[in-house]
Structure formats: structure tokens, C-alpha cells
Amino acid sequence: MSDRFIVLSGCSGGGKSTLLDELRRRGHATVEEPGRRIVQAELAAGGSALPWLDMAAFARRAIDLALADRARMQDHPGLVFFDRGLIDAACALEAHGGERVLEGLAAAHRYHRKVFLTPPWPEIYAGDAERRHGFDAALEEYERLKQAYPRLGYEKVVLPKVPVEARADFVLARL
Q1: Mean pLDDT throughout 55-66?
Q2: Taking the CB of the first residue and of the last residue of the chain, which one, N or C, has fewer CB atoms within 10 A?
Q3: Which CATH number do you get for residue 107?
Q4: Which InterPro entries match (predicted)?
């Protein structure tokens, strides 16, 4: 387990990336969401490993990228904040591809015992060219993650719906 690797997970469109930016601004190492990076690369290349075309292929790519992110940050001496990561990707693969990978990957590649979840926040949710699913799909994903993390031995900490500076303070105080 790496107590230095902190996961920000939860509802899509709940403010994870904004919180990651604030933590980066405060001098912490951060890793951007694998899914966003994959979507950008696939759109640029005309690929099909996109969540709205082939969710299983997308999730497999996200698992590979999350493993590479962990390896890349292994020697970083301080806290590293991940916008989603391996467990989120494995959850998506199980839900949409039927492959049972979550338990094995989660056991082999642990994060800090506390995982911070952004709750559904419809007032700030917005779709875009890279987030084409609706709020209902975001809620389904949140419910899967909310159940998966505790089942894997993580303590879930639901983030308050407050300005980003206060959210960052909340996360850092709980670590």
C-alpha cells in the first residue's frame, strides 16, 4: 500500500478536477484523470476506445494508464493526488465489460486507506465534448464506486459541497 497515493473519486462532474488543480496550486503532486486523457487521445487519433463507443476497451486502457501513473509516481517523495485511478477503471470494466478484475487489481495496488468521494452535485454538473454521458449515468457510476471502495477495505470520505479552497482544506485536514 502507498499511504502517499490519495484518490479523489466519486460522481462525474462533482468537482474532482477543480480540487486537483487547487491541490497542485498548493504544491502537491497530482495525476490527471486517465479517462480524460484517453478520450483526448482517441478523439485526436480517430480511435474507438471511447466510453460512448466501446466502454470495455476504454476501461481496459484506463486500467493500463492508471498502472503506468502509479509506476511513474512511485519514487515521488510526497503526497500524490490522483483524479480517479485504478479502482475506478476496474469498476467500469466490471460494470460494462463483465471482466472480474477489481478484487485482484485492488489487492495488488493499494492507495491510501481514505478515499475522497465527490458527491452528486447537479448545480455544477456539465457535459462537454469529453463527458458526453448524462447526470443519470454519473449517479449510477457514483453508486458503484460508493459501494466498491468500502468493500475493498477503504474508508470513504464524502467531500462537502463547498468552495474548492475549503474542499482542499477538508482533504488535507483529514490526512
Answers
A1: 93
A2: N
A3: 3.40.50.300
A4: NadR/Ttd14_AAA_dom, P-loop_NTPase
